[in-house]
From TrEMBL:
Protein name as annotated: HTH luxR-type domain-containing protein
GO biological process: regulation of DNA-templated transcription
Keyword tags: DNA-binding, Transcription, Transcription regulation
Organism of provenance: Cellulomonas composti
Domain HTH luxR-type: 8-73
Keyword Transferase in annotation: no
Record SMART domains: HTH_LUXR
TM ranges: none
PANTHER family noted in UniProt: DNA-BINDING TRANSCRIPTIONAL ACTIVATOR DEVR_DOSR (PTHR44688)
GO MF, one example: DNA binding
Pfam families per record: GerE
């Protein structure tokens, strides 16, 4: 169990609204550049948000993140 879960806050709630949006976008067949364009931010901003999401949900690949999102109703 992660620190977020043991503290009484679910991981899904620990993600910011933007992180949830980025996580949902990862499930699409698009590049980080395309996600950035859709969200009106830079590619580096998306990269930072993706890294934060991965850290918070305990994954290290896009496929794992997408699977986690689907299992938690974020996709």
């Amino acid at each position: 169990m992660s620190m977020l879960e043991t503290s009484g806050t679910g991981i899904t709630e620990a993600l910011t609204r933007r992180e949830r949006v980025v996580l949902a976008e990862l499930g699409e067949d698009v590049t980080l550049e395309e996600i950035a364009t859709r969200l009106f931010v830079t590619r580096n901003t998306v990269k930072s948000q993706v890294r934060s999401v991965y850290r918070k949900i305990g994954v290290s690949t896009r496929a794992e993140a997408v699977a986690w999102a689907q299992a938690h109703g974020i996709s």
